[in-house]
Amino acid sequence: MKLAPVVLLLLCFCLSSCEGKYGKRQKNQVTKKYELPSAPATPQEDLVDAKCLLKKYTHRSCSKVFCQPWEKCVDGTCICKLPYQCPKDGTSVCSTNGKSFPTYCHLKSFECLHPEAKFLNNGTCTAEGEFSVSFSDKSSDSRGIVTVKLVGQDKKMFICKNNWGMVEANVACFDLGFQQGALDTQGRFYYSEDLQINSTECLQVRCHGFETSLAECAFSKQSAPGYRGLAGVLCYAPDADLPARESFRCVNGKHVPLARACNGVNDCGDQSDELCCKGCQRGSLLCKSGVCIPNQHQCNGEVDCITGEDEVGCEGSHVGRSASSTLSRASQDGLLRKGAGHPEVQEETEILAADMDTERKRIKSLLPRISCGVKRPVHTRRKRIVGGRPAQAGDFPWQVAIKDGDKINCGGIYIGGCWVLTAAHCVRPSRAHHYQVWTSLLDWIKLNSNIIVERVERVIIHEGYNGTTYQNDIALIEIKKRSSQKECVFSNSIPACVPWSPYLFQPKDSCIISGWGREKDNQKVYSLRWGEVNLISNCSQFYQNRYYEKEMECAGTADGSIDACKGDSGGPLVCVDASNVTYVWGIVSWGENCGKPEFPGVYTKVANYFDWISYHVGRPLISQHNI
Ligand code: ARG
Fold first, then answer.
1. What predicted TM-score, i.e. pTM, was given to this entire model?
2. Ligand 1, atom 4: nearest CA belongs to which residue?
């Protein structure tokens, strides 16, 4: 960090209240305005899911959050893509080490692999291109009022406090080399006046949270509201004062006040304070996957919850966070800013520098998409497995039947390309040529005309399948391509999506099973039937020692009236997400008897096998959302 040589005047003043819990507490300067709301002991404790914390999830955990467009998910972690895996479309950008990249994605993927090369500007690398962040306080490297020098501007500028929150503070600290980000945005910050600073105006900055440099955030100019309105930050250094009150330990080792966990704001910098939540504080929304997101991310045109509900039912309520949006961030850092009153409303003028958040979204929209889990619009389902109702044409376009010689013992699920998922106990690789896969079948007795019969190329059984315990009861069937054809054409079928995260659906969610299996009384069934079942937690209470939490899933109804049974094996347990996309959540595997409430059906938990499936069928076939 470069420091100006001449210090003319040393001004000391206090940003916000001086009451910052880690700052040196100064008597007489505690103003009422910034006190934390008086609340019961620690309601935040109830919001945090302690068991989940053991898994040490961060912004790189793709079972909890989406990876960035310059990352991909492997084994549950977002890893750096290679630059050539980025979409080609875009304009060139420049990095701090003077290297030019064809697009922002190329630079970010390069940065991901070599963290020293950060984004500098969206133009060509020229000598005058310089962006720098520094602190106004010459006596400390880790705290101060933030000053930045934008590319093409000759003077350093202050940052306005308006909109300045932990997200921005973390980025400022990352920029200055503090890997754990910021400790606080409040406290006593010193200002050594410097003639080089333009103090009649300040910059309003808005970051998203993925940035590693303030240069990637959106800036706009405002007239400076005086020193009290300038942004300061205390970066987290390993020797920083430890909080006196209860704190939350981030995965990156930083401590943040417990009161800031599950508030939608990424205080930790690695998001670990928002990923294991049973509830969220005011100003934030709980995704079904146990993640808190800021209210502003709801209906902003970008899906944040992996379960999709933040962008559902948004008609007419698109907020859109453009760089010039003057939306107050107050609710996002509710606790920090509580009582701040109405931030002086400032006229924003020019938008300066690049808005890389918009660019990130644009890149996201260029990533390849797959189509799965969405049925063609069909006539409404006529209401009527054990206790199930008959299916109508088009209701289960991913359902297939597996015929072995002239017996049909099992079902299967079409997942795209030439691939069908089934249970390992249904098939044997050596019998591949005996199998037939029937699609669009409704009734074995009254055959419908659009049935397509496919032959099998090969069968892949999970290498960990155990026929005694039914662990890893999962197999893939590769369909034979028709001679003269390069691809498999499942013309009447639609693939079910393969879930990549065990958090997409939760116990008590209602899902659907389907198959040609027997009725409770072992009565034979010829037509495809389906039924609604709920996902059940804690299944070891029903099957001590036989139930393996990570690999298996239980589902049933309270009275046991709906269940899979003999012959349904290998078939689907599908769940539908908030945006109406169908996932194959389970594969019918085993159960004690059929339709007994004390013995729910047990399914292979498909989400646990995403990497195994993608290894065999190829990642692009089943990966959505840049997974
Ligand atoms: N293993 C059985 C089959 O081969 C499936 C049993 C499912 N049983 C149950 N009660 N859900 O078809």
1. 0.84
2. 569
